[in-house]
Write the structure tokens for this entry.
Amino acid sequence: MSSWLDYTINGLIVGNVYALVAVGLALIFGVSRLINFAQGSIYLVGAYIGWVAVVQLHTPLPLTIIVVAVAAAIVGLIIERFGLRPLQNSVRIAPLLATIGISFVLDQLVMLTFSPNPRALPSQLPDVRFQVGGGTIGPLDLLIAGVGLTSALLLFVFLRYSKLGWAVRATAQDRDAAMQMGVDVNHVNQAVFGIAAALGGVSGLLVGMYYNQIDTAMSLQATLKGVVAEVVGGAGNVPGAVIGSLLLGLVESYGVAVFGTSYRNLFAFLLLVIVLVLRPNGLFASARQAPPEPLTGTFIAPSRPVRIPRWALLVTAGVFAILPFFPVSFYVLQTLINAWLLGMLALSLTLVAGTVGQVSLGHAALLAIGAYTSALLSLTLSVPVGLAIIAGGLMSAALGTLLISPSFRLRGHYVSIATLAIGEIVSLVILNWESVTRGPIGISGIPPLSLFGYDLVSPTSIYWFSFVVLVVLALLQGRLLGSHLGRSFRAIRDDDIAARAYGLGLNRYKSLAFIFGGFAAGVSGGIAAHLYSYINHETFNTQQSILALTVVILGGLGNVVGAIVGAVALVGLPEVFRIAAEYRILIYGIVLLLLVRFRPQGLLGTI
Amino acid sequence: MTTGASEPLLALSNVNTFYGQAQVHFDLSITVGRGHIVCLLGGNASGKSTTMKIILGLVKPRSGDVTFDGASLLGLTTPQIVRRGIASVPEARRLFADMSVRENILMGAFVRNDRDAVAQDLDKMLTLFPKLGQRLSQRAGSLSGGEQQMVAMARALMSRPRMIVMDEPTMGLSPLYVDRVLELIRTINQEGVSVFMVEQNASLALEIAHEAYVLQTGKIVLSGPARALRDDPRIRDAYLGGSEAA
């Protein structure tokens, strides 16, 4: 049993590591009002460059740190120059999505280069520990604390006394006014991305050494923790990010001490949600600072949707309906079943993100709620599968809306962060609530799909079943969008202040959208559970949330037909081209980047 | 409209500007003579502020040309235009609220590299704006509107500009400060800096200006020496937007 002092030391050390990530995020947010979701990927790259340096090149520690910092900074500069600068005059959602795409690409490149297996990253420091009071401290702890303090000091001097540092601060406070003083904002962006990447890379190296292990899952975790720390400290607030990080480290460390390791992340995300709800500008925001989030209307690319004649839709639907009568392989049907399931999730997300403008990054949680509800009802209470799936949809609608409701008062980027956190919380609750969800073991032996007592086990019957459900949901959503309610949804997206001025209760309409969307996603999750017969807390993960978002953007935000077309394209094309599974995520990342750059309104246009 | 024999310092010629489908400027032509104060009058949504943004390169016109000292500004970015010698006092001051007054004023000298001369200029600003002396280490955001206007003007002067463009320098100020600001604009001008200012308050602006233009829904409807315009009955009609043309 370690002492409290040990937990405190551990919390502060981990907090220091988070600070290196969070400070970079804060700098970038300050200058360009962008949450850089690729920050964790740079951290990952830093860890692996460190591994190459230490294990293969046998560099001494100081040189390792310098190599990692410089290499990571170069990666940061490349991201800024080629990933983000071309989007400067684009809609506000574009850079956010671009950083998500970049993080997919970087993570996959690292995974393909180094394999997904964890690797040991030795710290090169003597393994001794000194007694301090009731706890112990080792040389690596001191190194991390030293790097953290030195970086903070250097950053302070840079921002306070250098000309470029002044330009960074001026740009953060008023971009246009800074330009009118002669500040080249591109230089400022470069500087900020370079610094953020160097700090992030070194952070990855230190974490790898601290746990003596690195793997590709580190990336998303680092981004999430950095974002939590940054938002807790107040987005764009550099000293706030440091304090937020230390606080996060301590909360996690004490949480682990009391409840156990699997609760670590749960505390991080609960802290985030609490701060977002109570003090959305962070703990240290002064009254002046309401971060200038754009009205959601400018967040999403406006466009004229592509009109598809009704007969063409009918013919296409008819062809897919009678497809199983033709000699097509099971493999094709299987692929299309996956597309229909993803299509249901995309319908849900396109309503919430596209029509109402709440860009959710945690939509997989709705799948999970539906899947667990349906699986448990049919397995433990012997509820007929058909009813169980509907119950799953209803549970997703109710619970999903309830969970998301604290974030209704947020806008733009903050909605995305909150939904991301809520998605993680759902997955962590599933992991830890063992008496109901069976925890990490997952649920196996889920009964197969059946309807009115008939088992649906042949691919043909499953194909028809999921296709009919998808078409019904799509028709309902189409009706919804054409109605007065649909117009109200779009009014909220385009200008929530004006919508409110015309008497629209925002919470009520956002709830309605999440109820409808939650049902569609829950049904999709329920069907999937009975199809897979085994699910666990990782079946429906953030990667799926992002995949759904890519589908929705591919089709055109808010576009019902687009969501289905996007799902078929993203599931189907890799199959057609026989792209190996390990390259798929890479392809999705590249697709997302290309879309954001060249067709932000999607294939069929936003509605 | 050129004054005397010398060519104008700044010239906008036949500028047409659009925001998406909507046309903001229709064949706009304005010249600012060397050493002159020129003001652009007009009501809301007449295209005044967009004119400022065109000069500073924040908005690009669809056709026409903008020249400064004979060279076109059209291909240049805002920082490059600032380096050519145009400083700005933006609408509503736009100070860097969390930086100190000293830092704000020195930000004006961002394009300069002569540290000693910059320090001297800072002292000069404190004689020109004596009130700022006690406020130097205060957060700029904590100053009153009038004091902020002083900081914004000092900040603009720190780049040693040949021309200053000002967007409604008297907006939101108390009558006392309005007079101070006009006085200062005159002082700045007497030291050889040309001034182009956008104003809603016609009678005040015409007191200090050499020439004036009246802009109405994107078109120049009236222009000439300020002295002549001051007595022109049409100025009130045009300025108040009485007769809506096109």
Notes: The beta strands of chain A are 130-132, 135-137, 450-451, 454-455.
